[in-house]
Write a structure and sequence with these properties.
The protein has 77 residues and is mainly alpha-helical. The chain contains 5 helices and no strands.
């Protein structure tokens, strides 16, 4: 079974929570201060590491605390 980086797990969690909140990829990129949609997509897939600032902005955008996102990651199988 391949190992997944923690960054990729956080990105996937943010993507899932974004989709549940009904926020588009374009809107999320804008709210997180990322200039391109493809740039934010790379963050959500783990191809680019999410910064702490981006985690804080993403959490605010989806109505969560950063700690709630990280707890969600830790609880996932």
């Amino acid at each position: 079974m391949p190992m997944t980086s923690y960054s990729a797990r956080v990105g996937r969690a943010v993507r899932y929570l974004r989709e549940v909140a009904g926020i588009s990829l374009t809107e999320m990129a804008d709210r997180c201060g990322v200039l391109t949609v493809s740039g934010w997509s790379r963050v959500e897939t783990g191809a680019t590491t999410m910064t702490v600032d981006q985690l804080q902005r993403a959490a605010k955008a989806i109505g969560k605390k950063p700690s709630e996102i990280l707890a969600f990651v830790e609880a996932a199988p």
